[in-house]
Design a protein that fits this description.
16 strands; about 425 residues; Rossmann fold; globular; single chain; disordered N terminus; alpha/beta; 17 helices; binds iron/sulfur cluster
């Protein structure tokens, strides 16, 4: 196994009636363990224990920049050869590791057992393990599980699986509760604070966030809860919340000036706050965002962009670069096309945009080479070879690690696309 997963399905491409190219060939993506890198910073009293191999431990360390913490909030329980050979009981080993960890770290309130390819291959039942360990360590520590394996996943599914695992544990809202607003998706604290301020100024109830910053502060949910999704890859989490009665506010995602404006307006409409006050509150930050974008538009307008499927942010980002930066979309690849979640985004894409879902990496590379785009957004595994061929790239994972949501970050988001082109131009000069 490796962190970049080549997986082969049946031959492709498959024709489709809706004009989307569907491919099921070899793909190059990071696995869901990667999400731990940003999730462990968000939930400050949680610990992510990967049940995996040395490869999983190396992936986490390199993705996290080999940070040295006195009190790290993630680690790997390595399944060794004895366990793989069936000579040791994996459950006993796991219980021992968790007990030791929780004795040494009384600050942990929420422990995620994160499944990996090796734990899935040996069919280690982490949901039963989580139940057993929760029974032992509650109420001090709740133990949950989700899968971060690279078997048929892409890296942002790690966050989706983690949040979906949290949903059944969320408290129920009080009977007869007033309508409340829930923002779903891990966002940097600074972005959450900006959003909270704007919602408050518009006159909406103070939003709650999933995930919360602390395990004991997870939001209550129920039929009076209206959710705004902040990340386009949260399909399972959205479904799980809908099963708890939560109603979704449909909107484009808050990327760029236009997307963020539409996102706030949708929330304001859902709460009957979409009058002059809402427009007056949103106008100044929107104008600042438009101004910040104009600085990059000159460098980016007319440039041809190719998205390889990786982060699941591709469709909203394609809408953003096409409509707000004037870029031309050559191909917009996405690992999964969640039509319902992306309906408002798809409606805003330029007519005739070439969309592809899934991947057959060699065919897609051939299309990319033939098109010679000015900028390619792709995973790390493809970026170096493409750069070596003289094609400028942007790592898609950077778009997930960086604060890019909202009005104040719109200029930074555009800068992420402008910088590689600028670097290439300087090298050529
Ligand atoms: S979960 Fe699978 S793909 Fe991810 S690092 Fe571990 S072995 Fe590799």
């Amino acid at each position: 196994m490796s962190a970049v997963v080549p997986v082969t399905f049946q031959p492709s491409p498959q024709a489709s009636a809706d004009g989307v190219l569907r491919e099921r060939g070899q793909r190059e993506v990071f696995c869901g363990l990667t999400g731990i890198v940003w999730l462990h910073r968000k939930i400050q009293d949680a610990f992510f224990l990967v049940v995996g191999s040395r490869t999983c431990a190396h992936l986490l360390q390199s993705a996290a920049g080999v940070m040295i913490f006195a009190e790290p909030r993630f680690g790997t329980a390595i399944i060794d050869e004895r366990t793989l050979a069936g000579l040791a009981d994996a459950n006993d080993e796991l219980d021992r590791v968790v007990t030791r960890l929780l004795e040494r770290r009384p600050d942990i309130r929420l422990l995620f057992l994160v499944g990996s390819c090796p734990s899935e291959v040996i069919k280690l039942d982490l949901s039963r393990a989580a139940e057993r360990l929760s029974g032992r360590f509650m109420p001090q520590v709740r133990v949950l599980n989700y899968s971060g394996s690279g078997i048929e996943t892409t890296f942002t599914q790690g966050e989706d699986a983690c949040l979906a695992a949290l949903v059944p544990q969320l408290p129920a809202e009080a009977r007869g509760a007033e309508p409340s607003l829930l923002v779903v998706g891990a966002l940097p604290d600074v972005v959450e604070d900006q959003f909270s301020r704007l919602f408050g100024q518009i006159g909406l109830p103070a939003p709650r966030f999933l995930p919360a910053r602390r395990a004991g502060a997870m939001p209550p949910v129920g039929p009076a809860t209206r959710m705004l999704i902040a990340q386009p890859f949260l399909a399972d989490t959205t479904r799980a919340l809908q099963e708890r009665g939560v109603q979704r506010i449909t909107a484009p995602f808050p990327f760029g000036a236009e997307g963020t404006l539409a996102w706030f307006r949708a929330a304001a409409r859902a709460f009957g706050c979409d009058g002059d006050r809402c427009e007056a509150v949103l106008a100044p930050p929107h104008a600042r965002a438009v101004q910040a974008l104009s600085r990059h538009r000159a460098a980016l307008a007319g440039k041809r962009m190719f998205f390889f499927p990786d982060s699941q942010l591709e469709v909203p980002l394609a809408r953003f670069v096409a409509r707000e930066l004037g870029m031309t979309l050559v191909e917009v690849g996405t690992p999964y096309l969640h039509r319902e979640l992306l309906a408002d985004e798809l409606a805003l894409l330029p007519e005739g945009t070439m969309l592809s879902e899934g991947q057959d990496v060699d065919r897609q590379l051939d299309r990319c080479r033939a098109a010679r785009p000015d900028l390619v957004v792709c995973g790390l595994g493809l970026a170096n070879p493409l750069e070596a061929e003289g094609i400028t790239t942007k790592w898609s994972i950077e778009l997930v690690f960086s604060p890019v949501h909202g009005f104040e970050q719109a200029g930074d988001l555009a800068a992420l696309f402008a910088r590689p082109l600028d670097r290439r131009a300087r090298l050529a000069a």
